[in-house]
Amino acid sequence: MQKQVVIQEFNMKKNIPHFLLFMGIVLLLSGCKGIYEPNVVNMPLLEEKREYTVTVSHKNIQVAYALKNHLAVMGNAFYTNIPTNTEIGYQELGEGGKGILVEGAVGYFNYYPDLDITFETYAGLGYGHSNFSYNSRDNNGNLVPQTFNSNGFKYFIQPDIGFKTKYFDWALGTRFSAIEYLNPTITNAKANIPNDRYSSVGTTTYIFLEPALTLRFGFRRIKLQVQYIHSMKLNNSPLYYTDYSLNAGLFFNFNNSKLKGPQFPKFPKFPKRSRKTDERKG
User: Which residues contact 69 (CB under 8 A, 6 or more apart)?
Assistant: First the structure.
């Protein structure tokens, strides 16, 4: 018995570095490159009314709640902050930025218990802010520092389908996003820079097709979630953006359909005397 415990402890210690290495790779691949970075696609895979989910990762917090059977709402919050790079690395020299995005959506879902499959579609609106710096090169090859600062709106429609079990979930979906920047402030715009990535920002609504694959492993109420997103810009206007992202976090699932609210102690009820009995006694 003691030997088994020692072997288990050894295996745990052996697996910890692999897990940390995996998380390090995820953080590296999810780094921002550009003024637009796709946030995690919220795929709650709800089954019935009063069920709710919470997803937490290093850049995203997401919730979803089933108001009734087939009707749900969701909320997403996203924040990224990549310090400006001063050395040659996975970022280009002089590149860095930060951004924030808040979204709300309403959707339809349908759960098929015989197949353990949920189909859902959400439509939503987001508002955010993006700040980015980048060193471009002019026609002579000289570095030209550029900065970008703007608020913006995001409109999206997101259909997805998923298979849900006690220990494992998978979901496959596609998000159609429209990004609109509002009166951006750009330094050194069009400074003899070929294929300037900021030249159309503020005058173009950018359309993205963003397929995503989500995998979850764990238990009924809590699972480790890993999601890969590929972002494809559908219009030809130039834009500097992140075209893929790999994210990891925790997914929580709860169901309140059987709860009836707070229970208070019941006080004994005393029988009421009829008026006719009181009149006879009087």
Answer: 48, 49
